[in-house]
Design goal:
128 residues, alpha+beta, Ribosomal Protein S5, domain 2, 5-stranded mixed sheet, 5 strands, elongated
């Protein structure tokens, strides 16, 4: 099997994922998964599509991550891995979709508008 690549995005984070057959090693920006995401919750998020299909020890995954915070980055990697697994075996798509790993989460931060302190917040109104 040759390398399969896919892109995952979430908020401002972009993950380019490269999947090859291997032993289950996940490298993110040339660092181990445990070094890049010390939080066990974020490690769990990244591994969710692999655990859903029981293929965690079957593929080596290399990821180039850019932008966003750690939560958005972990979810971007999850989407990228899920898309790559679908490219490898299209029959896995229904299982991954049922778990919610195929859908791109469109929620992003609303921009701040001019003349007010935030996206929705207004300065205190003074009648006089």
């Amino acid at each position: 099997m040759e390398t399969v690549n896919a892109i995952g995005r979430r908020k401002a984070a972009v993950a380019r994922v490269f999947v090859t057959e291997g032993t289950g090693k996940i490298i993110i920006n040339k660092r181990e998964l445990e070094d890049y995401f010390p939080s066990s919750i974020l490690q769990f998020i990244v591994k969710q599509p692999l655990n859903t299909l029981d293929v965690a020890e079957k593929y080596d995954i290399r990821v180039n991550l850019d932008g966003g915070g750690y939560k958005g980055q972990s979810e971007a990697v999850r989407l990228g891995i899920a898309r790559a697994l679908v490219k490898i075996n299209a029959e896995d798509k229904s299982a991954l979709r049922a778990a919610g790993f195929i859908t791109r989460d469109p929620r992003v931060v609303e921009r701040q508008k001019p003349g007010q302190p935030g996206a929705r917040k207004k300065f205190q109104f003074s009648k006089r």
